[in-house]
Amino acid sequence: MEMAVANHRERSSDSMNRHLDSSGKYVRYTAEQVEALERVYAECPKPSSLRRQQLIRECSILANIEPKQIKVWFQNRRCRDKQRKEASRLQSVNRKLSAMNKLLMEENDRLQKQVSQLVCENGYMKQQLTTVVNDPSCESVVTTPQHSLRDANSPAGLLSIAEETLAEFLSKATGTAVDWVQMPGMKPGPDSVGIFAISQRCNGVAARACGLVSLEPMKIAEILKDRPSWFRDCRSLEVFTMFPAGNGGTIELVYMQTYAPTTLAPARDFWTLRYTTSLDNGSFVVCERSLSGSGAGPNAASASQFVRAEMLSSGYLIRPCDGGGSIIHIVDHLNLEAWSVPDVLRPLYESSKVVAQKMTISALRYIRQLAQESNGEVVYGLGRQPAVLRTFSQRLSRGFNDAVNGFGDDGWSTMHCDGAEDIIVAINSTKHLNNISNSLSFLGGVLCAKASMLLQNVPPAVLIRFLREHRSEWADFNVDAYSAATLKAGSFAYPGMRPTRFTGSQIIMPLGHTIEHEEMLEVVRLEGHSLAQEDAFMSRDVHLLQICTGIDENAVGACSELIFAPINEMFPDDAPLVPSGFRVIPVDAKTGDVQDLLTANHRTLDLTSSLEVGPSPENASGNSSSSSSSRCILTIAFQFPFENNLQENVAGMACQYVRSVISSVQRVAMAISPSGISPSLGSKLSPGSPEAVTLAQWISQSYSHHLGSELLTIDSLGSDDSVLKLLWDHQDAILCCSLKPQPVFMFANQAGLDMLETTLVALQDITLEKIFDESGRKAICSDFAKLMQQGFACLPSGICVSTMGRHVSYEQAVAWKVFAASEENNNNLHCLAFSFVNWSFV
């Protein structure tokens, strides 16, 4: 095959080097002619006809060549370039597949060894069981391996611990020391980041990853050892001692602090030994484990806010790969001391899937991201370098984590706790805000209002996606405007803000995203205008820098976040950031956990406890086991800068605002919960509307009465529920609006919700005139009298607008009156219905 490819290339090259002369014979291009053509090709690979004629006129050595032959030369040259690029791509894919195949073969060998080991253990256990049954006098003796005592304070003792850690880590990375199973939803393949596995039935929680990275081993080791750069939950990492191991490696004593994901549990810290060395086969190893005994870590004062967790033998095995790049094995094995958290939170600390998502998979993804950036494969917005945008993401995440945890050594102190709704208000003075900006000396400090709560049967990815796309459903524009204005020196401050009207429009401008789109960095522009007459024409737009993570519903154990901070419209690299936002973490179910959470002495709030979920209390209680199978912890934290004389005012405003956000999340959670308001359950579709089945019958009967045709194709034996199902699944967007001076929508089928890009709950805030453009409003006004007189009206094709500001075209719109009974009686007129036929986004 290689010979055939070489022959093809030779023929292609030969055809490029020849042209027809005036006598019709093929003549080779001279070296000077090829050089002249190559110069033009470098400037413009596809020159126009005029450019080719100009080339012949200007270059005398090409005068004897026909313009058509010049055109053919450029065509062949582009074809050759394309073939070279394709060949290079195929070689790269081939190398990657070969490396992945090698990894899979190694994994297969490891699994075969594990099977053999299990078979031997099974045979041994059977033999022991037979011995015990046949000889009752036999006493089973359990022996515990005795490890020689090692002095962790001496180099020799530390070297002994390091060698043992290395052996244990290698047995986990490539051996059978841990019973690994494939990570759910993470199947290996040529386009996957790597091969991921989690532990089962082992001490603590463990995760493992294998993958191919186009970076050199030493570079990868440096990146992974800098854990705060890629592990978002890492607060700090400090190397206390470092000395050579005598075999070309180094031993380090490391103290690491990590953030707590919620306000319900204390943070964790680790005191570990880290051993870096190389193996005889050229591989590079960084392994780590916790130290215990005397002198375990820094002084007690610095670690008093943390619970000491244990890191079992973990690390990174990095092997150089043939043809460049490296094959990397990552193992994270932790004991997070779940005893110290409420029972409802223990699944977070006992889940290998959570460790895999937060640490193992994040590490491999981060390295892959850097590799692609170094190869120029990643393009970012606003002309910013990847490192600058990555720093912004890290600052947003770190600022949010600092607010959620509120460490005393960062200057945070609790101001008060609202016992009624468990909202914690903490305060941090200016002297501790150097991590935000040095330009905020005029501020008195930053105040944070935060709360954590349990949500029942709410998909985290769906909730975060809704909060991102429909900000007007939960946010107050004036609060955003206040935070943005307070960060500007010399600006007006609360409570003397100028009244501003939010237009309801938000524009999301993407800046960058990770290779698998699990994290997006973007700028959000909220459009506002001053209500003061003297500033009527002055824009009051607010800009937010925002990261959104975990919106893939198929990611198992992934945390979903929406974190944002006001930013200057000039978007400077050193802009001060005061982040706020939401974090939603899925929690595996355990019986009785809900009650444990509500009665725990920790601050928590159950948003769904006050909601009527499901068709009836009986059904709700009967489905308690299924509903508890999908739960999550939502943490909200909002930060507000304030001036010294306005601390109490801002604290009151912050509590009131967070309460309103909690109320909005209640409505959203009820709307998107599978056990909440859903047309398939026959429950009410919106407050004040009739039951879904009855409304569907009224819509269908009224359409038939007015237009003389059937809206739905209903079987004569079909049930009432089938009418609702047909209406809900109808391809045309069907919406109903109330008969008020300013009509608002009260129902929409699935196509209608998709067209307006909204939900059933949010639908109630959308007015009829809001979705039409100027021509559409004129058409409705002109035909409204006809609609009310004859009961229906057909509107021409036009354009309407979704809640996200996107334009939607439709071929025809039909409007008709919906009566609450089959006979036409104006006293029973219930609402107006609209059907948008063949709609699509422009």
Automatic annotation (TrEMBL):
The organism is Arabidopsis thaliana x Arabidopsis arenosa
What Pfam families has UniProt attached to this entry?
A: Homeodomain, MEKHLA, START
Question: Which GO terms of the cellular component aspect does the record hold?
Answer: nucleus
Q: Where is the composition biased (Basic and acidic residues)?
A: 7-20
Family classification: Belongs to the HD-ZIP homeobox family. Class III subfamily.
Record feature DNA-binding region, as residue ranges: 22-85
Protein name as it appears in the record: Homeobox domain
Q: Which GO terms describe its biological process?
A: cell differentiation; meristem initiation
Report keywords, A-Z. Answer: Coiled coil, Differentiation, DNA-binding, Homeobox, Nucleus, Transcription, Transcription regulation
The record ties this protein, via SMART domains, to:
HOX (SM00389), START (SM00234)
**Does the keyword Transcription regulation feature in the UniProt annotation?**
yes
Domain annotation Homeobox: ranges: 20-84
